[in-house]
Amino acid sequence: MSYVFQPLPVPTVAIADSEDLMPVRRIFCVGRNYAAHAREMGKDPDREPPFFFSKPADAVVLDGETVAYPPETQNFHFEAELVVAIGKAGRNISEDDALSHVWGYAIGNDLTRRDLQLAARDKGRPWDFGKAFDRSAVIGPVHPVSKIGHPDSGAIGLSVNGEVKQDADLNELIWSVPEIISILSHSIGLQPGDLIMTGTPAGVGPLQVGDQCTVSIAGLGEIATTIGPSE
Asked: Tens digits of per-residue pLDDT, 75-95?
């Protein structure tokens, strides 16, 4: 047996202070997981069960890369996020055991075609075109738990061309990392290489060609993305 065409390379993310790479299996994203962001999106921030959407693994963009302004949008947004990297498989994981499945943490930027997302939302349609497009998941180097532990508080922020746009604390997450892992694993079996983008604080806004977008999280450093011309 042979392939009818060559398989594409396995998507990977970097490991902090290492030449090793982590293969990416799936990217799960938690919607509206900061109360202030839920309000700015016109939704009630009450603690209802969390909801999830996905991005393809090959949407990954590494720190320092340039992202072309994507097609079919006039409202291209940034979203700073803490990313959880799963290192141990599991189903029906309890909250008490959830953190044992985490390999490490990274900084992320959930790039969003906001106009397409909102148009789909208003019609009750999936968000894929607004969220799951090419090069829409900026993921910084993964920092192993063995070195940094499990961050549950600390500053998370984002600036565009040096101007602060998002400024919050990880302790403002509506659903904590253990809760997110447990809830998700009761619906979908988690595997090593799964990434979970845990939601963004308030202050999301547009990016333009030529902008440099920098995301920082206490203990994880910062990552930067430049927005290039449309292709």
From this structure: 999 999 999 999 999 999 999
HSE value, Cβ hemisphere, 13 Å, CA-based, for 182? 12
Dist. CA 144–CA 65, nearest whole Å: 22
In the chain, % helix, strand, coil (3-state, to 5) comes to: 20, 35, 45
Domain boundaries, the chain: 12-228
Distances (CA, A) of 204 to 157, 166, 189: 11, 7, 31
Predicted model pTM: 0.95
- 162 by Cβ neighbours in 10 Å (0-12 / 13-18 / 19+) ranks as exposed
pLDDT in tens, 100-148: 999 999 999 999 999 999 999 999 999 999 999 999 999 999 999 999 9
Query: CA–CA separation, 136 vs 158, rounded Å?
Result: 16
Torsion of CA 182, 184, 189, 195, to 10 degrees: -100
Whole-angstrom Cα distance, residue 156 to residue 169?
5
Architecture of domain 12-228: Alpha-Beta Complex (3.90)
Instruction: Give the CA angle between residues 144, 148, 149 to the nearest 5°.
Output: 95
Length of the chain, in residues = 231
